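QA checklist item 7 of 12: single-chain prediction sanity check.
[x] sequence parsed
[x] length recorded as 484
[x] structure emitted
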Amino acid sequence: MSCVNGTRITVNSLSVRYADREESALCGVSEQIDPGEVLVVSGPSGCGKSTLCKALCKFIPEMIPAHVEGEILIDGLSIRDIRSQQIATQLGLVQQDPDSQICTLNVWQEVAFGPENLCLSREEVSARVEECLSTAGISHLADRETTTLSGGEKQRVAIASILAMRPSVVLLDEPTANLDPQGAKAIFEIMDDLRKKGKYTLIVVEHRLTPLLQMHPRLLLLSGGKVVARRSSVCHKDLEALGLRADWDISLPLLPRARRATLFVDAVSFGYEGTPLFEDLSFKLWPGEILGIIGPNGSGKTTLLRLIAELEKPASGRIVRDGDPGVGFIFQQPHQQIFERTVRREFEVDGSIGRKDLHCVLEGARLAGLENAPPLSLSLGEQRRLTFAIALSRNSSLLLLDEPFIGQDAKNVSWIISQLLAARRHGTATLVVSHDIPLVASLCDRLLYLGERTFFGEKDEVLSQLREAGKRAFTPTYWEQEQA
């Protein structure tokens, strides 16, 4: 898997403004990206990182309407003079939301879709599919329906489908956001291998940068659509100086023991197509308690939340919610629970909300001024904060949060944490599914690990059991140990 010629990208004074926004998403960005280098693009949520990637691939303005000024050159040619079909063979974008780029119902067919559209021979298509499935570590998923995959499995399929096109530049927009730590490590190793052996150019949008340091990337830091910092190489000290690395030390006061649990999962078993995810799973969740749910992709974490929310029915066992409390459910993909035409109307699905109250909520969620914006026009990080804020506004007794920290910078994560701790003080019980193990280990009262074996209990006890079982990837110091 190699590209014969490298591709040089030159960006001159690029500005992008969406029709429904007063402020520009990008403001006069200029950059040169040389063949074979690794460029990491980071910055606050909504600062223009994804917009930059989509503009480079000509998704903007051809598929996503926007007013564009400035110039993008690919090997000296203006992107305006290059056909989109040709750009697709030079620049491949793995998008932030894998659902947005999966277009077939079968994994093998999905990876074959691009090469088939290049009118390659059947033998060449098959060879590329098998190679890229193996590279992404998903050969065992070849015959699976894409609708049955977990978020992390879909992310790997999206990566394989882009690699099958053999572009010389691979753009990855938070490529490991939905992946467990082992899966994330595997993807970073794939990226490093591409860099070393294939002479690919890698442009990576990421919030968690520590795992990328081994590739000695160049850093481009955006804020408010502008370039605010550059670094020719990055180390831990740079991350600390730029505010891109956060160490979570959260104090959790002891909770008074309630007489009745908010949630009782009693001997629940469930699986798909004859394959069990968990058997005889039992635990209680008390008022105010925060339970972290961790484990490999495809182990049933999202499914457990769906069972508790009564979107699925257990094969056996029962789930009891005390007094049938209201449930606030934050989906892993926020667009799946966005229905209205404006942000304000999303808040008013269950009743009206006062102007001052709405302003206060949006300001806290860093969504101020967007009350009349179409929710689907927001960035993925903004959509996630929107659905989180809506769930909180309903004062539910039980919160089910599926990867709430994806796409969030340190300030936004701090805001989410503050809201969860406030809800904890008011007796709201919360389940948090997340692959951010250091954060979960600090934020949660107890942990539930789902995998080949199930571990449940006090967090220190569970982390100790995971180390003894050889599951070091699911402990807080995993990345630091990998970098040592």
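[x] summary fact logged: The chain has a mean pLDDT of 89.
[ ] second reviewer sign-off
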